[in-house]
Design brief:
Helix content is about 20%, strand content about 35%. It is an alpha/beta fold and about 325 residues long. It has 3 domains: about 5-90, Ubiquitin-like (UB roll) (Roll), CATH 3.10.20; about 100-195, Translation factors (Elongation Factor Tu (Ef-tu), domain 3, Beta Barrel); about 210-335, Nucleotide-binding domain of ferredoxin-NADP reductase (FNR) module (Rossmann fold), CATH 3.40.50. It has a 6-stranded antiparallel β-sheet. Helix 6 (about 285-295) crosses helix 8 (about 310-325). It is globular and about 65 Å long. The relative contact order is 0.11. The model has no long low-confidence stretch (mean pLDDT about 90). The structure holds FE2/S2 (inorganic) cluster. FE2/S2 (inorganic) cluster (FES) binds near residues 40, 45, 46 and 80.
Length: about 325
């Protein structure tokens, strides 16, 4: 029988999403960007408990011993083990803020490393099936390999808690990057993850347009945020400014940034080639000025502005934005 689409209504949050009869209620919700509580995805932890208020569900995994008989007779069920069999109405708690997500320690395995060039790598880690990472788009984690640890923003969307992507620039001060570029970290290496950390997250209820400004690998958390906004079906206009060193032809995932055009109705992408001397920290104000000059200030002033640039650039650029009419409440920033 071909799958059917059903409406899932979250009664206590006034939210709806469509879920296929082939997907668990949890998978459908995560795919639509909802911050649902979950951990194992296989019926053992009980974290994804919800109450069925109306409608029918179909058990697709037979592990519901995380629930007591009393909870079951009260309408409680595990979202990872059941798919909708009709339109349904549920009651459940969503993750309200970053503080309510516990710090998790997960032993991951390197699934893939792509060296984009001599000095930039994209690494994908895989969590065990029974221990996916719960996080909000835009957050960071600490990665440890043997005795080295570094902190990176997640480039992936929370709807894929089992496959986690990070963008790493080779830098002598970054010990994890050094291990990666010297090939000590390779496919199937074990990497310990601790997180999530940080508060660089999306203002999901805001109706303002969204301006995202990234410098180089600041693209990683911006990608997580933009793709999360897309799965939430937010229709706020999106403007993405991606600053990159002018000695490179284009930003390293230029085509990916362009491809958002196909899935978002109101999306504008502007790469900004910046000329500067990489070896000089004194050039930061110059980079900030180049980025600032490329912005459409009228758009910026009426938007929430998400800024992910080096700390030194952030100071100058933040000042320029605030001096030119942006209110502090509109600025959401994270240094890389
Ligand atoms: S996520 Fe663990 S029981 Fe559903």
């Amino acid at each position: 029988m071909s799958p059917q689409l059903f409406n899932v209504r979250l009664k206590n949050h006034d939210r709806n999403y469509e879920c296929s009869s082939n997907d668990s209620v949890l998978e459908g919700g995560l795919r639509h960007g909802l911050a649902m509580h979950y951990e194992c995805s296989n019926g053992t932890c009980g974290a994804c408990k919800a109450k069925l208020v109306n409608g029918e569900i179909n058990q697709i995994k037979h592990h519901d011993f995380a629930l007591s008989d009393e909870e079951k007779s009260d309408g409680d069920f595990l979202m990872c083990c059941n798919s909708p069999a009709s339109d349904v109405e549920l009651e459940l708690d969503l993750i309200g803020d970053v503080q309510s997500i516990p710090i998790q320690n997960i032993e991951t395995k390197v699934k893939k490393i792509v060296f984009m060039n001599d000095d930039l790598a994209i690494i994908t880690l895989r969590t065990p099936r029974s221990k996916t990472l719960q996080f909000m788009a835009g957050q960071d984690v600490e990665l440890s390999f043997k005795d080295v640890t570094s902190r990176y923003p997640l480039a992936s969307c929370p709807c894929h808690g089992m496959e986690l992507e990070f963008h790493v620039r080779n830098s002598p001060e970054d010990v994890f990057a050094t291990a990666l570029f010297s090939k000590k970290i390779k496919n199937k290496s074990m990497v310990d993850l601790e997180g999530p950390k940080g508060v660089f997250v999306l203002k999901e209820l805001s109706k303002k347009s969204m301006v995202f400004i990234a410098w180089d690998i600041g693209f990683a958390p911006i990608r997580s945020l933009v793709e999360h906004a897309f799965s939430l079906e937010m229709d706020n206009p999106v403007y993405f400014y991606w600053a990159y060193p002018s000695d490179e032809q284009a930003p390293y995932l230029d085509n990916h940034a362009k491809s958002w055009q196909a899935v978002m109705n109101d999306y504008t992408y502007s790469p900004i080639a910046c000329e500067f001397d990489r070896s000089s920290k004194n050039e930061c104000h110059k980079v900030a000025k180049q980025i600032f000059n490329a912005l459409d200030l009228e758009v910026v002033k009426r938007s929430d502005v998400y800024l992910c640039v080096p700390a030194e650039v952030l100071i100058y650029l933040g000042e320029l934005l605030l001096e030119n009419g942006l209110d502090e409440s509109q600025l959401i920033a994270s240094p890389i």
